[in-house]
Design a protein that fits this description.
The chain has 254 residues and is α/β, with parallel strands linked by helices. It has a single domain (28-42, 63-252), classed as Rossmann fold (3-Layer(aba) Sandwich). The protein contains nine helices and ten strands. It has a seven-stranded mixed β-sheet with strand order 3-2-1-4-5-10-9. It has a three-stranded antiparallel β-sheet with strand order 6-7-8, with no helix packed on it. Helix 3 runs parallel beside helix 6 (97-106).
Length: 254
């Protein structure tokens, strides 16, 4: 939220509008602006059953936990909805304040939701929960920052806690893999300054070398976005390819 102080009106004069002033005092990052705009535009909370595509072990993990499950990078609540429907206490978390406000409106049973930048740390105490779900939210950072985020996730998880995740694949060329300025291996910045990382098998093995794989990485195709206008505008004549992602489950070794 941006608050305009009327005491400054005389200083800026009539030539500058309130909108100009708001624009100049907007401290959101490029990523925050992008996601705020996206979630203000899109309110779909349909679920693409990626958690169910894993195996019975994952379902058992979710069913067994009694602690709140953190939905890290919840967006408009696709996974939050799934977890709530399975009777879980969920804490949706996102960088976008718009997403969090939507979540609160759409899921009134939510007791707690958090808006924060993962790169600056998770607002939870040590050994807080048994399960964290991270759906397409861990692939926006440099290698150094990604490593720090994973360390913080491990801090928040209880011993033998579980991280269930999905990330972009390097094979996801239709949706941006290999495009833009390569800042690091598999880490790109587009012409608007938005950054995104893509993973291959070696990347996952490296980032999670201090974790235990409960479910080995598997490449799957996501069809959640097939009907979105963004996809239709890409190629109105061709069938839109699904988004290629990796899914896996890891255990925190402490």
């Amino acid at each position: 939220m941006i608050i305009v102080d009327d005491r400054f009106d005389d200083r800026i004069g009539n030539s500058r509008s309130i909108r100009d002033m708001q624009r100049n005092t907007d401290k959101r990052t490029i990523q925050e602006k992008k996601w705020d705009e996206k979630w203000a535009r899109e309110r779909d909370t349909s679920y693409d059953d990626w958690l169910e595509k894993m195996n019975d072990t994952v379902t058992s993990i979710i069913e067994a936990t009694r602690a709140p499950i953190i939905d890290l990078g919840c967006g408009n609540g696709n996974d939050t909805r799934y977890l709530l429907e399975h009777g879980k206490d969920v804490i949706p978390c996102d960088l976008s304040s718009v997403a969090i406000e939507n979540i609160k409106k759409d899921f009134t049973q939510i007791k707690r939701a958090e808006c924060f930048d993962m790169a600056k740390g998770l607002p939870f105490e040590d050994n807080f929960t048994d399960v964290i779900v991270s759906d397409l939210s861990l692939h926006y950072f440099s290698e150094e920052v990604t490593t720090k985020i994973l360390e913080d996730i491990k801090r928040v998880l209880k011993p033998n806690g579980i991280l269930i995740l999905r990330v972009n694949s390097t094979n996801d060329t239709f949706w941006g893999a290999g495009q833009g300025e390569e800042l690091e291996k598999h880490f790109y910045r587009d012409d608007k300054g938005f950054t995104k990382r893509y993973f291959d098998q070696d990347d996952l093995n490296r980032f999670f070398s201090e974790w235990e794989f409960i479910l080995n990485p598997e490449e799957i195709t996501l069809h959640r976005y097939d009907s979105h206008k963004e996809a239709k505008d890409r190629d109105a004549k061709a069938e839109t390819p699904g988004k290629i992602t990796w899914i896996c489950v890891v255990k925190a070794k402490k």
